[in-house]
Amino acid sequence: MKRLTALLTVSALSLAAAQTTPAQTTPAQTTPAQTTPAQTTPAQTTPAQTTPAPATAAPATPAPVTLATTPTVSPASLSLSAATRIATLAVNNCAQLGYHVSVTVVDRSGVTLAVARSENAGPHTLGASLGKAFTSASARNLTSEIARNLPGNPGLADIPGYLVLAGGAPIRVNGAVVGAVGVGGAPSGMIDEKCGLDAVAVVLGQ
Fewer CB within 10 Å: C terminus or N terminus of the chain? Predict the structure, then answer.
């Protein structure tokens, strides 16, 4: 009887084991992350705009000059009387402004006619006034204008006897250069120039 019971128990257990279905494990499906590549917009470079330099006006063509056809010429030149008065008055003009100066007046060829010097003007002012007068007489121009044009023609400063500083002015009569005045000693060449020009205007009635 015990044996029969044991057999029945074993059979029941076998049947139960046969009817048990193991759990099916479904593997998790992993979806790979989708990476969107970053879109890089290239920088737009605007080319620099270069403004063209303004065109330089062509220098004016000088008018033809008339040459003498006679064997000799007699150009007008400044007198000693006028030169002395111009030199003395130019010194006084600068003295009224508070400056000690020297003044040299030359003829149309740049040769000295008259010199005047303030009692306390420095010794260097004599040479400066002569250099300015000579330069102005030779170039037939204000030395301030020559100095302004010097960067474009630096060789002017190398001409023997030239002093390219403001303070020299040509003396004209009826449009012709008859001499020149040079002033040295004021703190500014333009003050020197004014003292000389004002003296010329008074003496020659210009």
Answer: N
